[in-house]
């Protein structure tokens, strides 16, 4: 997913005390919603960055969820069992694995199928000759690719922090953790589910068109693996098919339609599907570009979707063309339970010059400001009855924005705002911050709920 760790200074307090801290920090409240401009300052948040909390959550009866983006990836290298385990202990409701496939067809959790940035593969001389250049989703990528390794070979690798320049503390865990399979993640979620709390999983199929149709292994043979088919088969094999505990997401449309129309019915399961959106203005769904280039019958692939898109389906049709009420309504009626838009589209930002120092460390790293606008897609999706789960909240200074009042809003304030705008959940790298935000939002709205 596209490109928040500090916890509010009152992290260990009750929800009511957290709310008091938020207000004392300068938060304005309008109609029960803390403004994005408010909340603890970035400097306050940074003081509480050191140690993640171990939250004892209650089940989310109001439907508001916290999704651990690749696990507690603000605290541990992403897509490791340790990152997922910490996310669960911090109170996340769902853990999110990005799924790619090995040469022998096993699903593993990696951000991409190219693994030089997330594993120590470059330190294994026995794999030096597997470094190559491939075209993935139209882009040339050089490195080592999961489809060229068996699971047994992947087991010899260890995870590394993907962005050590931003998260240097995570780099101390480099080399400690193995690369988990999807099945292992499901077993972890099952083991950690206790009492009324049931941990869910939110897998994403990464590059499904590449794996199924376009991609080739190092020896030139086609990969030919359906990530959707393998995903559902693994869920069934592990007995993890409760629709209240699974969301399946993808940036591609064909992949989700195929899951709804063929793969899930054949397996006897019915799980909610979430359509992800890349940047609305510049990005194009890769499956659409590929299918147009291959001359495939788009009506056979997408059904009546094309009739809902202004101008029809073209190779360059951007994600924004699929964010209209007509398309959102069709998706809801035909395959999707929710949408996952990029947070930068829902809450547009503008460049900030010069940058400002938000956390008081002497380095000016806040380079954007809030425009105080909300994209109409949010209201349109909610009006169609779709769940809305935006991505990704991150707490590090470089991911934050200056609010209209001049303060730098923390991820905590941004998360409270998103709940107030009606989202049902969000992806966040620091799950404890998301849980704290939900506690605050519930406390703010308690008088309104109890007064009904």
UniProtKB/TrEMBL annotation:
Q: Which UniProt keywords apply?
A: Glycerol metabolism, Hydrolase, Signal
GO CC terms of this entry: periplasmic space
Please list the GO terms describing molecular function: glycerophosphodiester phosphodiesterase activity
According to its UniProt record, the EC number is 3.1.4.46
- For the protein in the UniProt heading, the enzyme class is hydrolase
Indicate the segments forming the GP-PDE domain, all copies: 64-438
InterPro entries associated with the record: GP_PDE_dom (IPR030395), PLC-like_Pdiesterase_TIM-brl (IPR017946)
Catalysed reactions, as listed in the record? a sn-glycero-3-phosphodiester + H2O = an alcohol + sn-glycerol 3-phosphate + H(+)
A GO biological-process term: glycerol metabolic process
Signal peptide (from-to): 1-37
Pfam families (alphabetical): GDPD
Q: Which PROSITE patterns match?
A: GP_PDE
Q: Which PANTHER family match?
A: GLYCEROPHOSPHODIESTER PHOSPHODIESTERASE GDPD5-RELATED, GLYCEROPHOSPHORYL DIESTER PHOSPHODIESTERASE
- Hey, which family's this protein in? Belongs to the glycerophosphoryl diester phosphodiesterase family.
What is this protein's name? glycerophosphodiester phosphodiesterase
Native organism is Marilutibacter aestuarii
Upper lineage: Bacteria, Pseudomonadati, Pseudomonadota, Gammaproteobacteria, Lysobacterales
